[in-house]
Amino acid sequence: MSIASPAHAGLAALLERRVSVIVGTRDAGLRPHVMRATGCRMSRDGRRLEVLMPATSGADVLDDLRANGRIAVVFSEPTTHRTLQVKGDDAVVTAPTPEDAALAARYRTRFGEEIAQIGFDAGLAVAMLGADEPLAVIAFTVREVFEQTPGPTAGERIGQADG
After folding, report:
1. What is the pTM of this model?
2. Which of 143, 145, 147 is nearest to 70 (CA)?
3. Domain with 56 in it: what CATH number?
C-alpha cells in the first residue's frame, strides 16, 4: 500500500525545516534499534525518501534494514514539537556520494541552529550526529505518514491510501 500523495504539504514543509530526524528499525527478534540521522531528501515525486546516517554508530539499524527493509523515520522540529512519522518496507542501504557529505554538513549546521533556540549549544549537533563517521544512505518508498505532533490528532494517518 502506498500513500496517494506522500509529499503531503505537511511532510514536504517539515522536511524543509530544521528538524530532528530519527530512524527506527527492528531485528528478527523484534528488538528495536534507533539512530539519529544526519539529513534527508525527498524525490521529486514525493514517493521516496533518502535518509543519511552515521554508518558506524548506526550499524544495528543498517543491519536491520538489510535484513528486512522495514523502517520508521520521525521528523520533529524541537522549537515547535511539530512531528511526523513516515514508514516504509522496502528500505535499501547504499553508499554515499560527495553531495551526501555536503548535505550532512548543512543538516548539522541547521540542526545546531534549531537546538540553540531552545538553549543548547549549537556545537552539540556535531557531537550528536557523528560528524567524524562515514555515512550510509537509506532509500525507501513512503508507505504511510502519520501525524505525531502532541495533541488531539497525534497518531492519525495523513493522506489517502491507494491500492
Report:
1. 0.88
2. 143
3. 2.30.110.10
